[in-house]
Design brief:
- The protein is an alpha/beta fold and 337 residues long.
- It has a single domain, classed as 3-Layer(aba) Sandwich (Rossmann fold).
- Helices cover 43% and strands 17% of the residues.
- It contains 12 helices and 9 strands.
- The chain has helices at residues 4-20, 28-39, 49-54, 74-86, 101-116, 126-130, 132-137, 140-157, 171-185, 208-226, 254-259, 319-330, and strands at residues 62-68, 92-96, 160-164, 190-194, 229-235, 262-268, 281-290, 298-304, 309-312.
- A 9-stranded mixed beta sheet has the order 3-2-4-5-1-6-7-8-9, sandwiched between helices.
- The protein starts with a helix and ends in a 7-residue tail after the last helix.
- 32% of the residues are buried.
Length: 337
Protein backbone atom coordinates (compact mmCIF):
# COMPACT_ATOMS: atom_id res chain seq x y z
CA UNK A 1 0.00 0.00 0.00
CA UNK A 2 1.22 3.45 -0.92
CA UNK A 3 2.16 5.77 1.88
CA UNK A 4 0.96 9.35 2.01
CA UNK A 5 4.40 10.56 0.96
CA UNK A 6 4.37 8.25 -2.07
CA UNK A 7 0.91 9.52 -3.06
CA UNK A 8 2.09 13.11 -2.78
CA UNK A 9 5.17 12.35 -4.87
CA UNK A 10 3.07 10.55 -7.53
CA UNK A 11 0.64 13.44 -7.69
CA UNK A 12 3.52 15.88 -7.93
CA UNK A 13 5.07 13.88 -10.77
CA UNK A 14 1.78 13.91 -12.72
CA UNK A 15 1.33 17.64 -12.15
CA UNK A 16 4.93 18.25 -13.23
CA UNK A 17 4.48 16.26 -16.45
CA UNK A 18 1.20 18.04 -17.17
CA UNK A 19 2.87 21.41 -16.70
CA UNK A 20 5.92 20.56 -18.81
CA UNK A 21 3.60 19.44 -21.60
CA UNK A 22 2.40 23.03 -21.96
CA UNK A 23 5.65 23.96 -23.69
CA UNK A 24 5.39 24.79 -27.41
CA UNK A 25 7.65 21.92 -28.49
CA UNK A 26 5.20 19.36 -27.12
CA UNK A 27 2.46 20.74 -29.38
CA UNK A 28 4.41 20.98 -32.64
CA UNK A 29 2.74 17.91 -34.17
CA UNK A 30 -0.71 19.27 -33.37
CA UNK A 31 0.40 22.61 -34.77
CA UNK A 32 1.29 21.12 -38.15
CA UNK A 33 -1.94 19.11 -38.16
CA UNK A 34 -3.77 22.39 -37.54
CA UNK A 35 -1.98 23.98 -40.51
CA UNK A 36 -2.88 21.05 -42.76
CA UNK A 37 -6.50 21.27 -41.66
CA UNK A 38 -6.66 24.96 -42.56
CA UNK A 39 -5.46 24.17 -46.08
CA UNK A 40 -8.81 22.45 -46.60
CA UNK A 41 -10.76 25.41 -45.20
CA UNK A 42 -9.73 28.39 -47.35
CA UNK A 43 -10.90 31.92 -46.73
CA UNK A 44 -14.35 32.93 -47.97
CA UNK A 45 -14.56 35.99 -50.27
CA UNK A 46 -17.09 38.63 -49.23
CA UNK A 47 -18.12 39.59 -52.77
CA UNK A 48 -16.40 42.99 -52.43
CA UNK A 49 -12.94 42.76 -54.11
CA UNK A 50 -11.25 45.68 -52.32
CA UNK A 51 -12.60 44.59 -48.95
CA UNK A 52 -11.28 41.09 -49.66
CA UNK A 53 -7.86 42.59 -50.33
CA UNK A 54 -7.79 44.21 -46.89
CA UNK A 55 -9.01 41.00 -45.24
CA UNK A 56 -6.26 38.92 -46.87
CA UNK A 57 -8.67 37.33 -49.31
CA UNK A 58 -11.89 37.23 -47.32
CA UNK A 59 -13.28 35.79 -44.09
CA UNK A 60 -11.43 33.29 -41.91
CA UNK A 61 -12.43 31.67 -38.66
CA UNK A 62 -12.75 34.39 -36.08
CA UNK A 63 -14.97 37.16 -34.76
CA UNK A 64 -15.81 40.09 -37.07
CA UNK A 65 -17.56 43.09 -35.50
CA UNK A 66 -19.20 45.75 -37.70
CA UNK A 67 -20.21 48.90 -35.85
CA UNK A 68 -22.00 52.09 -36.85
CA UNK A 69 -24.64 54.51 -35.69
CA UNK A 70 -28.32 53.96 -36.46
CA UNK A 71 -29.45 54.16 -40.12
CA UNK A 72 -25.92 53.86 -41.52
CA UNK A 73 -26.85 50.63 -43.31
CA UNK A 74 -25.20 48.04 -41.07
CA UNK A 75 -27.83 45.36 -41.67
CA UNK A 76 -28.00 46.03 -45.41
CA UNK A 77 -24.19 45.84 -45.69
CA UNK A 78 -23.87 42.59 -43.76
CA UNK A 79 -26.90 41.05 -45.45
CA UNK A 80 -25.42 41.85 -48.85
CA UNK A 81 -22.16 40.16 -47.83
CA UNK A 82 -24.14 37.16 -46.55
CA UNK A 83 -26.07 36.87 -49.83
CA UNK A 84 -22.91 37.20 -51.90
CA UNK A 85 -21.26 34.46 -49.86
CA UNK A 86 -24.35 32.24 -50.07
CA UNK A 87 -24.31 32.62 -53.85
CA UNK A 88 -20.88 30.93 -53.72
CA UNK A 89 -22.48 27.87 -52.09
CA UNK A 90 -21.62 28.63 -48.45
CA UNK A 91 -24.28 28.18 -45.73
CA UNK A 92 -25.28 31.27 -43.74
CA UNK A 93 -26.91 31.09 -40.30
CA UNK A 94 -28.53 34.51 -39.83
CA UNK A 95 -29.88 35.51 -36.42
CA UNK A 96 -32.22 38.45 -37.03
CA UNK A 97 -33.09 39.93 -33.65
CA UNK A 98 -34.81 43.01 -35.12
CA UNK A 99 -36.48 42.18 -38.42
CA UNK A 100 -38.71 39.29 -39.38
CA UNK A 101 -37.63 36.58 -41.80
CA UNK A 102 -39.82 38.10 -44.52
CA UNK A 103 -38.34 41.58 -44.03
CA UNK A 104 -34.85 40.17 -44.46
CA UNK A 105 -35.88 38.29 -47.59
CA UNK A 106 -37.60 41.39 -49.01
CA UNK A 107 -34.47 43.50 -48.45
CA UNK A 108 -32.44 41.01 -50.48
CA UNK A 109 -34.96 40.88 -53.32
CA UNK A 110 -35.20 44.68 -53.36
CA UNK A 111 -31.43 44.89 -53.78
CA UNK A 112 -31.55 42.34 -56.58
CA UNK A 113 -34.11 44.45 -58.49
CA UNK A 114 -31.68 47.36 -58.27
CA UNK A 115 -28.74 45.27 -59.45
CA UNK A 116 -30.74 43.78 -62.33
CA UNK A 117 -32.34 46.90 -63.80
CA UNK A 118 -30.78 49.35 -66.23
CA UNK A 119 -33.09 52.15 -65.10
CA UNK A 120 -32.83 52.79 -61.34
CA UNK A 121 -36.37 54.19 -61.35
CA UNK A 122 -37.69 50.69 -61.99
CA UNK A 123 -36.04 49.17 -58.90
CA UNK A 124 -38.29 48.49 -55.94
CA UNK A 125 -37.93 49.21 -52.24
CA UNK A 126 -38.59 46.65 -49.53
CA UNK A 127 -42.09 48.04 -49.13
CA UNK A 128 -42.55 47.92 -52.88
CA UNK A 129 -41.77 44.20 -52.80
CA UNK A 130 -44.12 43.30 -49.94
CA UNK A 131 -47.15 45.55 -50.62
CA UNK A 132 -49.79 43.56 -52.55
CA UNK A 133 -51.74 46.66 -53.52
CA UNK A 134 -48.70 48.25 -55.09
CA UNK A 135 -47.78 45.03 -56.87
CA UNK A 136 -51.23 44.80 -58.44
CA UNK A 137 -50.73 48.24 -59.99
CA UNK A 138 -47.28 47.52 -61.46
CA UNK A 139 -46.93 47.22 -65.22
CA UNK A 140 -45.54 44.07 -66.82
CA UNK A 141 -42.00 45.45 -67.03
CA UNK A 142 -41.77 45.98 -63.27
CA UNK A 143 -43.45 42.66 -62.50
CA UNK A 144 -40.94 40.92 -64.77
CA UNK A 145 -38.11 42.69 -62.93
CA UNK A 146 -39.40 41.51 -59.54
CA UNK A 147 -39.82 37.96 -60.83
CA UNK A 148 -36.26 38.07 -62.17
CA UNK A 149 -34.97 39.22 -58.78
CA UNK A 150 -36.95 36.50 -57.01
CA UNK A 151 -35.58 33.85 -59.37
CA UNK A 152 -32.04 35.08 -58.65
CA UNK A 153 -32.70 34.95 -54.91
CA UNK A 154 -34.05 31.40 -55.15
CA UNK A 155 -30.71 30.29 -56.61
CA UNK A 156 -29.00 30.73 -53.24
CA UNK A 157 -31.97 30.93 -50.85
CA UNK A 158 -31.38 27.32 -49.80
CA UNK A 159 -28.09 28.48 -48.26
CA UNK A 160 -29.69 31.19 -46.09
CA UNK A 161 -31.06 30.00 -42.72
CA UNK A 162 -32.83 32.87 -40.93
CA UNK A 163 -33.69 32.65 -37.23
CA UNK A 164 -36.05 35.37 -36.01
CA UNK A 165 -35.69 36.94 -32.60
CA UNK A 166 -39.25 36.08 -31.67
CA UNK A 167 -38.14 34.47 -28.41
CA UNK A 168 -35.15 34.56 -26.13
CA UNK A 169 -31.99 34.15 -28.22
CA UNK A 170 -28.77 34.23 -26.25
CA UNK A 171 -25.34 32.71 -26.58
CA UNK A 172 -26.50 29.24 -25.55
CA UNK A 173 -29.24 29.27 -28.20
CA UNK A 174 -26.77 30.47 -30.85
CA UNK A 175 -24.37 27.65 -30.03
CA UNK A 176 -27.21 25.10 -30.03
CA UNK A 177 -28.44 26.24 -33.46
CA UNK A 178 -24.93 26.02 -34.89
CA UNK A 179 -24.58 22.48 -33.55
CA UNK A 180 -28.00 21.59 -34.97
CA UNK A 181 -27.09 23.02 -38.39
CA UNK A 182 -23.85 21.04 -38.52
CA UNK A 183 -25.64 17.87 -37.40
CA UNK A 184 -28.43 18.10 -39.98
CA UNK A 185 -26.46 19.47 -42.94
CA UNK A 186 -22.92 18.30 -42.30
CA UNK A 187 -21.72 21.85 -43.05
CA UNK A 188 -20.23 24.51 -40.83
CA UNK A 189 -22.05 27.81 -41.50
CA UNK A 190 -20.97 31.42 -41.40
CA UNK A 191 -22.92 33.01 -38.55
CA UNK A 192 -24.42 36.51 -38.50
CA UNK A 193 -25.71 38.15 -35.31
CA UNK A 194 -27.98 41.14 -36.03
CA UNK A 195 -27.39 42.58 -33.56
CA UNK A 196 -25.16 42.25 -30.49
CA UNK A 197 -27.04 44.48 -28.04
CA UNK A 198 -30.28 42.51 -28.53
CA UNK A 199 -28.87 39.13 -27.54
CA UNK A 200 -30.57 37.78 -24.46
CA UNK A 201 -28.39 38.65 -21.42
CA UNK A 202 -26.15 35.90 -20.14
CA UNK A 203 -26.87 36.97 -16.58
CA UNK A 204 -29.99 39.13 -15.96
CA UNK A 205 -28.43 40.44 -12.75
CA UNK A 206 -25.25 41.65 -14.45
CA UNK A 207 -24.74 45.05 -16.05
CA UNK A 208 -25.18 45.64 -19.78
CA UNK A 209 -21.40 45.98 -20.16
CA UNK A 210 -20.76 42.70 -18.35
CA UNK A 211 -23.33 40.87 -20.50
CA UNK A 212 -21.94 42.31 -23.75
CA UNK A 213 -18.39 41.44 -22.72
CA UNK A 214 -19.49 37.90 -21.91
CA UNK A 215 -21.39 37.57 -25.19
CA UNK A 216 -18.41 38.74 -27.24
CA UNK A 217 -16.00 36.41 -25.48
CA UNK A 218 -18.36 33.45 -25.92
CA UNK A 219 -18.89 34.24 -29.62
CA UNK A 220 -15.12 34.37 -30.03
CA UNK A 221 -14.87 30.98 -28.33
CA UNK A 222 -17.56 29.52 -30.62
CA UNK A 223 -15.76 30.78 -33.73
CA UNK A 224 -12.58 29.10 -32.51
CA UNK A 225 -14.24 25.84 -31.47
CA UNK A 226 -16.25 25.49 -34.70
CA UNK A 227 -13.55 27.06 -36.92
CA UNK A 228 -16.04 29.45 -38.51
CA UNK A 229 -16.34 33.19 -39.13
CA UNK A 230 -18.92 34.94 -36.96
CA UNK A 231 -20.08 38.41 -38.02
CA UNK A 232 -21.61 40.57 -35.30
CA UNK A 233 -23.44 43.84 -35.97
CA UNK A 234 -23.11 46.37 -33.17
CA UNK A 235 -24.72 49.75 -32.57
CA UNK A 236 -22.77 52.89 -31.67
CA UNK A 237 -25.12 54.99 -29.58
CA UNK A 238 -22.57 57.37 -28.07
CA UNK A 239 -21.60 59.19 -31.27
CA UNK A 240 -23.29 61.17 -34.06
CA UNK A 241 -23.06 60.92 -37.83
CA UNK A 242 -20.68 63.90 -37.79
CA UNK A 243 -18.11 62.04 -35.67
CA UNK A 244 -15.42 59.76 -37.12
CA UNK A 245 -15.74 56.19 -35.91
CA UNK A 246 -12.80 54.99 -33.81
CA UNK A 247 -12.07 52.22 -31.34
CA UNK A 248 -12.53 54.80 -28.58
CA UNK A 249 -16.31 54.51 -28.89
CA UNK A 250 -16.03 50.93 -27.62
CA UNK A 251 -14.06 51.70 -24.48
CA UNK A 252 -17.22 50.99 -22.48
CA UNK A 253 -17.01 47.37 -23.62
CA UNK A 254 -13.51 46.00 -23.46
CA UNK A 255 -14.77 42.65 -24.70
CA UNK A 256 -15.48 44.02 -28.17
CA UNK A 257 -12.18 45.83 -28.40
CA UNK A 258 -10.01 42.94 -27.25
CA UNK A 259 -11.89 39.80 -28.27
CA UNK A 260 -12.71 40.71 -31.89
CA UNK A 261 -10.31 39.62 -34.62
CA UNK A 262 -11.51 42.26 -37.05
CA UNK A 263 -13.37 45.43 -36.22
CA UNK A 264 -14.96 47.41 -39.05
CA UNK A 265 -16.49 50.85 -38.56
CA UNK A 266 -18.92 52.56 -40.92
CA UNK A 267 -19.18 56.35 -41.25
CA UNK A 268 -20.39 59.04 -43.61
CA UNK A 269 -17.76 60.43 -45.94
CA UNK A 270 -16.93 64.05 -45.19
CA UNK A 271 -19.24 64.38 -42.15
CA UNK A 272 -21.14 67.18 -43.91
CA UNK A 273 -24.57 68.51 -43.00
CA UNK A 274 -27.51 66.64 -44.49
CA UNK A 275 -25.18 63.83 -45.63
CA UNK A 276 -27.69 61.29 -44.35
CA UNK A 277 -30.26 62.71 -46.77
CA UNK A 278 -28.13 62.12 -49.86
CA UNK A 279 -29.12 59.41 -52.33
CA UNK A 280 -26.91 57.51 -52.63
CA UNK A 281 -24.98 58.12 -49.44
CA UNK A 282 -21.20 58.18 -49.50
CA UNK A 283 -20.14 55.68 -46.83
CA UNK A 284 -16.62 54.88 -45.70
CA UNK A 285 -15.66 51.50 -44.33
CA UNK A 286 -12.76 51.72 -41.88
CA UNK A 287 -10.89 48.64 -40.75
CA UNK A 288 -10.03 49.75 -37.22
CA UNK A 289 -8.63 46.44 -36.04
CA UNK A 290 -7.32 43.50 -38.04
CA UNK A 291 -5.43 40.95 -36.02
CA UNK A 292 -3.76 39.48 -39.11
CA UNK A 293 -3.87 42.18 -41.75
CA UNK A 294 -4.15 45.81 -42.77
CA UNK A 295 -5.75 48.57 -40.72
CA UNK A 296 -6.31 52.28 -41.00
CA UNK A 297 -7.26 52.80 -44.63
CA UNK A 298 -10.78 53.64 -45.75
CA UNK A 299 -12.84 51.91 -48.43
CA UNK A 300 -15.45 54.02 -50.20
CA UNK A 301 -18.94 52.75 -50.98
CA UNK A 302 -22.06 54.19 -52.52
CA UNK A 303 -25.04 53.19 -50.38
CA UNK A 304 -28.34 53.18 -52.26
CA UNK A 305 -30.41 53.09 -49.10
CA UNK A 306 -33.77 52.84 -50.83
CA UNK A 307 -32.73 49.51 -52.31
CA UNK A 308 -30.45 48.18 -49.54
CA UNK A 309 -27.49 48.08 -51.90
CA UNK A 310 -23.81 48.92 -51.40
CA UNK A 311 -21.59 49.49 -54.42
CA UNK A 312 -17.85 49.38 -53.84
CA UNK A 313 -16.04 52.26 -55.52
CA UNK A 314 -13.11 51.25 -57.67
CA UNK A 315 -9.81 52.98 -57.02
CA UNK A 316 -6.88 52.53 -59.35
CA UNK A 317 -3.59 51.96 -57.55
CA UNK A 318 -0.83 54.41 -58.35
CA UNK A 319 2.62 52.87 -59.07
CA UNK A 320 3.90 53.83 -55.57
CA UNK A 321 1.01 51.89 -53.94
CA UNK A 322 1.63 48.86 -56.12
CA UNK A 323 5.33 48.89 -55.24
CA UNK A 324 4.57 49.23 -51.52
CA UNK A 325 2.14 46.28 -51.64
CA UNK A 326 4.73 44.08 -53.42
CA UNK A 327 7.43 45.04 -50.90
CA UNK A 328 5.12 44.25 -47.99
CA UNK A 329 4.47 40.77 -49.37
CA UNK A 330 8.20 40.16 -49.77
CA UNK A 331 8.83 41.10 -46.14
CA UNK A 332 6.27 38.52 -44.99
CA UNK A 333 7.46 35.15 -46.40
CA UNK A 334 5.58 33.13 -43.76
CA UNK A 335 2.32 32.18 -45.39
CA UNK A 336 0.25 29.08 -44.61
CA UNK A 337 -2.29 29.49 -47.42
Amino acid sequence: METNNEKVEAKSAVEKETYLNTCAKYHMKDFFNHINTRVNTPCIPTGFPRLNNYLDGGLYEGLYVIGAISSMGKTSFVLQIADQIASQGQDILYFSLIMSRYEIMAKSISRLTFEACKDQRLAKTTRGITDDKRYAAYDSEIKDLIELAESEYIKFADKIYIHEGTGEIGINEVRAEIDKHIFFTGKAPIVVIDYLQLLSPYNPNASDKQNIDKAVMELKRISRDKKIPIIVISSLNNMSYKDPVTMEVFKDSGGIEYSSDVFIGMQLKGFVDKAMENTPRDVEIKILKNRNGKTGDKLNFKYFQLFNCFVEEKVEEIPEQQERRVNESKRNPWSFK
